[in-house]
Amino acid sequence: MQTLYQWDFTGKVTPKIPEYIKTNLEDFAPDFDDKGFITELVENVIAKSEEIDATIVKYAPDWPIEQITNVDRNILRIGVFELKFSDAVPSKVAINEAIELAKTFGGESSGRFVNGVLGAIYKDAIAAGEVKEVDKVEKPPRKKEGEEEKEEVKKE
After folding, report:
1. What is the helix (H) or strand (E) element at residue 114, kind and residue range?
2. Cα 149 to Cα 151: distance, rounded to the nearest angstrom
3. pLDDT of residue 16
4. pTM for this predicted structure
5. What is the DSSP letter of 144?
6. What is the DSSP letter of 30?
7. Rounded CA gap, 27 and 6, in Å?
8. What distance in Å separates the CA atoms of residue 86 and residue 48, rounded to the nearest whole number?
9. What distance in Å separates the CA atoms of residue 130 and residue 6, rounded to the nearest whole number?
10. Closest Cα to residue 135, out of 85, 90, 102?
């Protein structure tokens, strides 16, 4: 998000992206090996930024894209990218991560705003039958605390 913030704040100068990523990793996560994830995410968000921004405008019609704070705008860009274009990130994970980023780095109502926009996008995608493969995978139900112990006792 920091790199997209810088890109947006400095007038969307794309050639500076590698420099921003390098500096941000050195400053905020010097021992972190992201295996290229950040570069890939940032490059993909920028490549799809026109379509992403159009989606944000559609789902936040009362907020012209330039009037959304830089932090919220770039959190939404990441969230929209992960919802609409990433087959690797489950939709609910994308929404929850964006909400947490908004609560941590945005303003007082950023979490609710991001949740409203991304939730509406997700709801419309489901209604249109646009379910990502990663969202179709059924997960086994979580066991409640103490359930494992009960099962073990039954086996004996």
Report:
1. helix 110-127
2. 5
3. 86
4. 0.83
5. P
6. T
7. 14
8. 11
9. 32
10. 90
How far is residue 109's CA from residue 99's CA, in Å, rounded to a whole number? 10
- The neighbour count for residue 146, using CB atoms within 10 Å, is 8
Q: How far apart are CA 82 and CA 98, in angstroms?
A: 10
pLDDT profile of the chain (156 residues), mean per 10: 89 88 88 86 95 97 94 97 94 96 95 97 95 81 59 49
| 85, 77 contact by CB (below 8 A) | no
The first and second tokens of residue 77, run together, are 């860009």
Determine contact, residues 68/57, Cβ cutoff 8 Å: no
Rounded CA-CA distance 76/71 in Å is 9
Complete domains list, the chain, with CATH = 2-155 (1.10.940.10)
